[in-house]
Design goal:
Distance between the termini: 30 Å
Shape: globular
Helix content: 25-40%
CATH class: Alpha Beta
Number of domains: 1
Number of strands: 8
Structural class: alpha/beta
CATH architecture: 3-Layer(aba) Sandwich
Number of helices: 8
Length: 236
């Protein structure tokens, strides 16, 4: 489907877990992808992650990617993310909405959660974008490129600004061998987050590795707790 963002069409892919059959969803998951991921590639994966619960997953393509209109400009992400949430909220008709995100997408998710009421968040490898660019990537060009680029990051996508504004429960999935967003930068966002949080470390995983093994078990247990403690309470 498409969502209108001030005259620009934002492409959204939806999916439901195969386990719910013809049941109507009782809650919704809005996923914001990492920079190298397309919505159509992961919509079913996002839905299946919640296979024990009757949900519908929405995944948007950022402006300039897939069928989403507009240039591939980072400043267009916040309004597109908010427009997508608002359309989902309209269709959800009071049913709870949780946000999921990976890498760059966590900045969009935290912005939306700072502006709208959400049921909870699942965030993987969150970067504090401005600080990451300046401190981790600036040295090799003497900050001549990194400095001006960091200044282009809108405040809405600065997790050090938005995380302290969000008070809903969150699950943080952290790859300890992440070289794209090193672990110390994950910690900046986690420590800034104002709400209750469950932190799941993945000692052997890098930035783009799939969640498997014990971490996957812990994630599903945390999702079940979030459903029972947060989603069920809002539905009651």
């Amino acid at each position: 489907m498409t969502v209108d963002d001030h005259g620009r069409a934002i492409e959204v892919w939806t999916a439901r877990p195969t386990t719910i059959g013809d049941r109507e969803p009782e809650a919704f998951i809005l996923e914001f992808t990492g920079n190298a991921t397309r919505a159509e590639e992961i919509a079913q994966y996002v839905a299946q992650r919640w296979q024990a619960h009757p949900v519908e997953a929405w995944v948007m393509n950022y402006p300039g990617y897939g069928g989403s209109e507009g240039g591939a400009k980072i400043r267009l992400i916040p309004p597109a993310a908010l427009a997508t949430f608002d359309e989902l909220h309209r269709r959800a008709n009071g049913r709870p909405i949780s946000l999921e995100a990976n890498s760059l997408g966590t900045a969009a998710a935290l912005y939306v959660a700072s502006q709208r009421e959400v049921a909870g968040l699942v965030l993987q490898n969150p970067p504090p974008l401005r600080r990451l660019i300046l401190q981790h990537y600036g040295w090799w060009n003497l900050w001549m490129v990194a400095g001006p680029f960091a200044l282009q990051i809108p405040k809405e996508l600065d997790a050090t600004h938005t995380a302290p504004l969000v008070t809903e429960p969150a699950i943080f999935m952290l790859a300890d061998k992440d070289t794209t967003v090193p672990a110390k930068y994950h910690d900046i966002v986690v420590n800034a987050y104002a709400g209750p949080k469950a932190v799941i470390h993945m000692p052997s995983l890098g930035h783009n590795d799939s969640i498997t093994g014990e971490a996957d078990v812990q994630l599903h247990q945390a999702i079940d707790r979030m459903w029972n403690q947060t989603f069920a309470t809002r539905q009651a």
